[in-house]
Amino acid sequence: MTRFGDFDTLCRDVPSYSWCNLFYRQVQRTSSDILTGDSADASTAPVGVNPTCGILKAGSDGSLANIANIIVIALSIFFTAGLIFLANRRKAAVGRVELRSFLILYFLSLPLQLLSNGALLEQGSTAIVALTALHAGTVAALFWSLLANGLVATQVVEDGTMSSLIPFHIGAAAFFAATTYIGFDVALGITDTLGTSTPPEALRSIPLFVLTSVWPAAAAFLYLVIMCWIVLGVLNEVRPMWYYVLSAVLFVLSQLAYFLLSHVVCKGTNAKIDGSFIATLLETAAVGVLYLAWRSITEESWDEDAYYQ
Question: One GO CC annotation, please (predicted)?
Answer without folding.
Answer: endoplasmic reticulum membrane
